[in-house]
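agent> fetching stored inputs for the zinc ion docking request
agent> found them:
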Amino acid sequence: MQSSVFHKLLLLLPLAYQHTSNDAETKVTHWNYELHGENWGGTCASGVRQSPLQLAVQKSLIVPLPRIFFGNYDVKLRGPLTLENNGHSAHMDIPATTNGKRPYITGGLLKGRYVADGFHFHWGSPNQRGSEHSINKQRFDVELHIVHRNARYSDVNEAAKHKDGLAVIGVMFKIVKNPNRLFPGLNKVLAELPKIINYKDKSEISGSLSLGQMLGNLNPRDFFTYRGSLTTPECQEAVTWTVFSHILPISYSSVSRFWRLRDSEGHRLINNYRFTQPRNGRPVFYRTGKDLSGAYLGK
Ligand SMILES: [Zn+2]
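agent> prediction call returned; pasting tokens
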């Protein structure tokens, strides 16, 4: 650790923690991305199966897992759909669909159904990429997280207390000059970013949106999956991660809208990613729909 970083860390500590007598654990009550998680404390510092990770096909167990099944992802969500600046990201709570059901996922390493609860993004800045996971040593410009809770638990907070509580899918976006594919759902969401520049700003997404429209033409057959944690305090080790290896295109102008957001202190909300974490011998599984020649087997 460089000494300048160390001094910065010492200065931040009193601001970052609040200890209360009726709370046995030290809790992070105020946090930011200045050190990308290195001063968050609690489970974030003491955990042994933390996220994000460096993912690589060569360091993964290639196994015949079931593909991810997306339930009600093609059904429009019931409005209002509100994108909010929560000080750490641009976030949307996911409501029920117009048929009164909830979007959910199952398959992969998951046992049972996991109900979609919310999505948010991680991004960089004009000179840094912002994805949390890396794939084959590469990081990407934006990472979308869709957070799901195990249907057996009543809400996300309850689910976060259990090992099998949460399932998050991660989708990577890379800036390309002229994205020849337009993703109308994602574009609708990104169009609201200029209206949520400041902390607690909210904006209603106009028109209709299904969760599947956030994923464009994502190939769901190829993914990494492992057991890890939330990447924000309290970093609970309750997450089964599924990170797709198909990288989606995004335009520079879309990504630059993220860089204009501000946090609760009025600072620029950029580079809101946590550093990658030690694997500690955990298995990472990789599922592919390809055979060894690279041809798709249709699975
Ligand atoms: Zn996230």
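agent> quick read of the result: Residues 120, 122, 145, 231 surround zinc ion (CB under 6 Å).
agent> awaiting further instructions
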